Amino acid sequence: MEEKITQVKLKNGMKALLKEVHTAPIISSWLWYRVGARDEPTGKTGISHWTEHMLFKGTKKFPAKVLDKAISRDGGRWNAATSRDATHYYETMPADKFDLALRLEADRMKNSAFGEKEVASERTVIISEREGNENEPLFQLTEAVQQTAFRVHPYHHEVIGDKADLYKITRDDLYKHYRSYYVPNNAVLSVAGDFNTRAMAKRIRELFEPIPGGAVPPRLIRPEPEQKGEARFTIEGNGETTFIQMAYRFPNATHPDFFPLQVFDAILGGMSGLSTKTSRLYRALVDREFAVEVSGWAEPTIDPHLYRITLIKHPKRATEEVVAAVDAEIKKLQDIPIPKDEIKRAIKQARAVFVYGNENITSQAFWMGYAEMFASYKWYASYLDNLAKVMPQDVQRVARQYFQPSSRVIGIYLPQGNEV
């Protein structure tokens, strides 16, 4: 896949990736910081997400309410998010109004205030968000699977953090986190849209190069020990639905097996973003009334993470029947050669999801920067080429290697008073 992406390196260490797309008079920019939930020690979980919230409280130059109105008035949209590996901020605006987005991000990279009142207010908001999540059975189950799968690695905790830490994190903790990680040499700016590359690079230098670089803290490295056998647990809660989640160890995004596993995912669970009704799990479990719903999912990450199969159990089936039905489908992929036409269809499906996700300018700007967080933009540019190289024997090999009961976690969410 040919991508005309220009890389610009500023004197303070900041990187910018620029891609001209003249299909509409729009520009989208995403400012990425290499800090996320994986960088948080016990006692500070959730601090990256909370810091992200604080950057919407404004600066002296751009007070919060004024800025929100200005972006809306100009027909733009903006938001932010924190993930396991990174934090990002984005603006998509009409091309002739776009300079506001660059000025905003350059200013709040160094001038966000973190006032005590705003910190207290946001503490209430985030704890309320956490408590809302805790009312959802699937959040409870997913968090428990995460905590069981990762005892040592900081992927152990959810991005929102543990409530015990959310009560104790102080304003000074947040500000120290901000000043430590929000430095230009820890940032990547990805911009796509209707602009001239030379002019855009010049403007980025004018706004961001005066910001001093800093000593970037080393990333938290705590490798997860090898799992010694299958782990199973049951949690109980409100509701009438039994959820099952089966999680298998999955390699990081730069591992050679990542792409064969993408094709495996398309065959077994169906790629997220398209209909999954042709997938093996859907046909074997939903069509045969073992499950009401089934999905498979993994994300590209810096360190090895998880491939999750999430199911809603059919009321007339026992949990063990459902797990056995999943195991049977995985065993077929391990033992029986996969037909070439099924591999081709799976690759086509994976391609379609990727291409569909890159149709608009906002998505293109997103993917350039996102790939830099766990690999490089070249990972994004070569995605389709790497998919095309996957052979049937590759898929069978990774099915055998990664989908073994001895290294999985099975979590069951059981409505109170029900039997497994």
Short description:
It is built from 16 helices and eleven strands. With 420 residues, the protein is α+β, with helices and mostly antiparallel strands. Helix 1 crosses helix 7, helix 10 packs antiparallel against helix 11 and helix 11 crosses helix 16.
How would you explain this protein's 3D organization?
43% of the residues lie in helices and 19% in strands. With 420 residues, it is α+β, with helices and mostly antiparallel strands. The protein has two domains: 6-208, Cytochrome Bc1 Complex, Chain A, domain 1 (2-Layer Sandwich), CATH 3.30.830; 231-415, 2-Layer Sandwich (Cytochrome Bc1 Complex, Chain A, domain 1). The protein has a six-stranded mixed β-sheet, with helices on both faces. The longest helix is centred in the N-terminal third of the chain and has 19 residues, at 116-134. The protein is globular, with a radius of gyration of 23 Å. The N and C termini lie far apart (48 Å).
The span between the termini is 48 Å
Could you give the order of strands across the largest sheet? 1-2-6-3-5-4
Q: What are the secondary-structure elements, in order, as H or E?
A: EEEHHEEHHHHHEHEEHHEEHHHHHHE
Do you know the CATH topology of the largest domain?
Cytochrome Bc1 Complex, Chain A, domain 1
Mean pLDDT score, rounded?
Answer: 94
Instruction: Work out the helicity level.
Output: 40-55%
